[in-house]
From TrEMBL:
It catalyses: (7,8-dihydropterin-6-yl)methyl diphosphate + 4-aminobenzoate = 7,8-dihydropteroate + diphosphate. Keywords: Folate biosynthesis, Magnesium, Metal-binding, Transferase. Pfam families: Pterin_bind (PF00809). Its EC number is 2.5.1.15. It comes from Devosia rhodophyticola. The gene is folP. This is Dihydropteroate synthase. Its cofactor is Mg(2+). NCBIfam families: DHPS.
Length: 283
């Protein structure tokens, strides 16, 4: 059912991707992502949130300092660094061993983040925005989550063939910079330059996407593809999020990027027990 991959992280450790679903907890380090009662600063809140997600069972923490939501203001490289680097340093200083990914398309931010202890690059521009991104990945031997995001694509063409064409470019850029195919994790980029129909057609094509021969990450958590369907607000999208993740998992996806770690992990564990049987110890 699930293809197995062992991904080598930037620190030399290995991450197993296969039948056991891997949950990535989202850590947004942006001023709008917390309400400050006055007692805590952004750094303390972010570190506490990461620790909570780890306690809830997160296998990876994805740290982002720039909102890529439609309409969000762009953030300077320095501002992004000032947000994410202290968080990474604080998590490492606190003894956190859960792999950290850096959600940035800026090569300088990725480079500094890895030097501070992050071990995975998460690039929403699939290595195609900045040529230096693939070089940073090669320099640090870092795996790359390459997400599909192409606002300029031909809307008349089927979304699946567009995604595959884009990833062909991603793979070529990676290989020419010295990033081997074994370092790539693909992500179809739910909500990025896609219609509601595109998003669901993409989700329904998860099996085809895994047949591409790379581990697959799914990022639907609380997104408008759920909200527009259910007519609800972000806080009410957990059930819809779980439905997308369980379906994608059953169709071979490996990593699930979520806000609500415990609930998604529980659902994915039950799905895994259904496909592969309960864990050996309690069988
Ligand atoms: C994604 C992401 C995603 C990956 C964001 C949000 C928007 N990185 N960063 N995949 N989405 N790899 O979380 O709503 O879907 S930011």
């Amino acid at each position: 059912m699930h293809k197995h991959y062992d991904i080598n992280l930037a620190d030399g450790r290995s991450l197993a991707l296969g039948r056991n679903p891997v949950v990535m907890g989202i850590l947004n380090v942006t001023p709008d992502s917390f309400s400050d009662g006055g007692a805590f600063n952004l750094l303390d809140v972010a570190v506490a949130h990461a620790q909570q997600m780890i306690a809830d069972g997160a296998d990876i923490i994805d740290i982002g300092g720039e909102s890529t939501r439609p309409g969000a203001a762009p953030v300077s490289t320095q501002e992004e660094l000032d947000r994410v680097i202290p968080v990474i340093e604080a998590l490492i200083a606190a003894g956190v061993t859960t792999p950290l990914s850096i959600d940035s398309y800026k090569p300088l931010v990725a480079d500094q983040a890895i030097q501070s202890g992050a071990t995975i690059i998460n690039d929403v521009h699939g290595l195609l925005r900045a040529p230096q991104m693939a070089q940073v990945a090669a320099l640090h031997n870092a795996p790359v989550i390459a997400m599909h995001w192409d606002n300029d694509r031909d809307q008349a063409k089927p979304i699946l063939s567009e995604i595959e064409r884009y990833f062909t470019r991603t793979i070529a850029v990676a290989e020419s910079a010295g990033v081997s195919r074994e370092k790539l994790i693909l992500d179809p980029g739910f909500g990025f330059g896609k219609s509601l129909g595109d998003n669901y057609a993409t989700l329904n094509a998860t099996r085809m996407l895994t047949d591409f021969g790379f581990p697959l990450l799914i990022g639907t958590s609380r997104k408008s593809m759920i909200g527009r369907l259910l007519n609800n607000t972000t806080e009410d999208r957990l059930a819809g999020t779980i439905a997308t993740n369980v379906l994608a998992y059953a169709n071979g996806a490996h990593i699930f990027r979520v806000h609500d770690v415990r609930a998604n992990r529980d659902a994915l564990r039950v799905a895994a027990a259904t496909l592969y049987g309960p864990p050996e110890e309690i069988r």
